Amino acid sequence: MAMAEAEQFELRDLLGLRNRSAWLFLIMLEATIGLYMVRNFAESPLIPVVLALVLVVVAGVVVLVIPVDPLPWSATVFVVAAAPVATVLTSFDAEHGWSKQVWTAFAASYVLAVLVLRGRLGAAWLGVLGTGVVIAVVGVVAGVRSGVLLGAIVPVATVAGVSMFTAIMRPTQRSLRLLREEATMRAAAEATMAAENGERDRQLARLDKVARPILERIAEGAELTCDEREQCRLLEAELRDGLRAPHLATDELNGAARGARSRGVEVVLLDDGGFAGVPGWLRDQVIAAAARELDSANEGSVTVRILPMGRRILATVLVNAPDQDRRTEIDAAGAVQVST
Predict the structure, then answer these.
(1) How confident is the model at residue 94 (pLDDT cuts 50, 70, 90)?
(2) Is 269 exposed, middle or buried (0-12, 13-18, 19+ CB in 10 A)?
């Protein structure tokens, strides 16, 4: 079923039965229906002819406008029933009996042909069969000439031609589907590679910015001072934060974490992915709350954690101090709650 839907989708794309071109096709279809059925006004009562015209016109709209492929069964049943019902309406006069015209069958055949393109081959042929039964009854009861009955084969030929066309186009549809899948996979692979390259370049730029000076000192073989050793310790912790919590690796939070660590505070930053899809203002609020706690901490430990996606709480900041512990929670709506 999934493959059939994909093929019909590609066939509609191939024939231009979507977007603006679909509306142009609809106008042409309705104009063709009108040109055929206008001839009924000369030989059939007005009200049945108008009803039949409206029925076939609406069926033409339904078979094209609904975007789901294959066409839903409710719409399919309406389109299939419209052809024989409209033929009956324009072939029978309560006063004079059966008429000798089959113009409605010609118009309805185009609607049934489009139904084949919408993935309802069997239903379309069921509509052809129903219309054929009506024409046969007209031929027997009204004594229609053989030439008229032979002309009624044209609707069958219309649906048969479109059915053969869809069968011939199946290999092309499969090729288009495979090409589409390959293009999608290639685009996804290229996007993944671009993201990986971008992240690598960002990490390299950050490493070059923060670590190059001290690495050059080490490469030169210089003896590091106590301050430089302390700087190495803080730098190592900052680089570890960038790997463990990339979404928290901002200049504001890095500076606050560096300051807290220099005062002897143990800082842990954890990122479990909850920032995905979160608006920028909410991220800024979490980072600002974490930076405030880090700036005010002089001892103990501070743990900043972004929780997994789908949680009510977006992030937590846990402060463990000798005098008291404090927990700050920021939920997905931006509300901040502090508990001790």
Answers:
(1) very low
(2) buried
Phi–psi pair at 241, nearest 5 degrees: -60, -40
Eight-class DSSP state of 95 = T
Beta strand segments in 101-147, E: none
Per-residue pLDDT at 8: 42
Distances (CA, A) of 299 to 14, 33, 253, 260, 338: 69, 85, 18, 8, 19
Cα 102 to Cα 116, 242, 282, distances in angstroms: 22, 78, 69
Question: pTM of the entire structure?
Answer: 0.51
Strand partners, 327: 318, 339
How many Cβ atoms sit within 10 Å of the Cβ of residue 182? 10
Dump pLDDT digits (tens) for 125-157.
999 888 888 877 776 666 655 555 565 566 788
* SS3 per residue for 223-238: CCCHHHHHHHHHHHHH
Specify the DSSP element, H or E, that contains 288: helix 280-296
Q: Could you tell me the two tokens for 24?
A: 């142009």
Residue 100 confidence (pLDDT):
52
